Amino acid sequence: MKTKLSECVKALRKQYKLTQADLAYKSGISLCTIRELEQGKLSCRMDIVNQLLDLFDYELIPQRKAHA
Question: Phi and psi dihedrals of 62, rounded to 5?
Fold first, then answer.
């Protein structure tokens, strides 16, 4: 199931014209983890996600939920 995070990572990767293999190499995160994250199949630790997002000058932070 796609998540906002998986969609964001994939969109950023494509915006920077990187393959999944390029992103894995540059971030130091395994190609398998990149693939699973983009497919929404994996629960990642926050530090791993931030390691990946750091390449794009983004970070994942805890945030209070918005209520309707």
Answer: -65, 140
Closest CA to 20 of 39, 41, 34: 34
Kindly indicate the confidence band of residue 28, based on its pLDDT and cuts at 50, 70 and 90: very high
Q: What DSSP state is assigned to residue 54?
A: G
Cα–Cα distance, 63 to 15 (Å, whole number): 26
This prediction has a pTM of 0.81
First to last CA, the chain: 23
The amino acid at 4: K
To the nearest 10°, report the CA torsion of 16, 47, 62, 22.
Answer: 10
User: Residue 32 — pLDDT band, cuts 50, 70, 90?
Assistant: very high
Indicate the residue type of 63: Q
Block residue for tokens 């970070």: 59
